[in-house]
Design goal:
Blueprint: E1 2-4, H1 10-20, H2 28-38, E2 44-51, E3 54-64, E4 74-82, H3 91-105, E5 111-113, H4 120-128
């Protein structure tokens, strides 16, 4: 079942984020505090796929107000994660498509999704979700 994440999903979501950022030590208290805060915002949604009472895939979508395209907003999808034991079942695609639906319902003129992966399988996953490769070039500046 596809649905918005709630505070009750914290442990499952934390497990997914630990798989996404396996080299990073994630502080449970900070994670909980940030999750609780994000869930109060109306311009960010965290979507999950529930299977057997556990969230096994997740992604988040954020709306950013804009001044172009008739002052319409745009959206960013970030942190697409599927549990490593549950991959290739279509759950990730369902959460991404739900994020796209939310961006559309927000009347965004576009939705952006970036990946650091160069793997053809992962790139094909995103094109299967409706994204195009190479339309724009992304530049990233990271901070410590």
């Amino acid at each position: 079942m596809i649905r918005e994440i709630t505070t009750d999903d914290q442990n499952d979501l934390l497990n997914l984020y630990r798989q996404l950022r396996s080299q990073e030590i994630i502080n449970e208290f900070q994670f909980s505090e940030k999750l609780n805060y994000i869930l109060t915002l109306d311009h960010i949604k965290i979507i999950g796929f529930e299977n057997n009472n556990h969230i096994v895939a997740s992604s988040m979508v954020a709306k950013i107000d804009g001044l172009s395209y008739g002052s319409r907003s745009f959206a960013i999808i970030e942190n697409v994660i599927t549990d490593k034991l549950m991959r290739n079942n279509g759950y990730g695609k369902l959460v991404v498509k739900k994020c796209i639906e939310i961006a559309n319902a927000w009347n965004c003129y576009k939705v952006i999704l970036e990946t650091g992966s160069k793997e053809n399988l992962k790139l094909q996953f995103y094109t299967d979700c409706g994204f195009t490769i190479g339309e724009k070039t992304a530049f990233i500046k990271r901070f410590e």
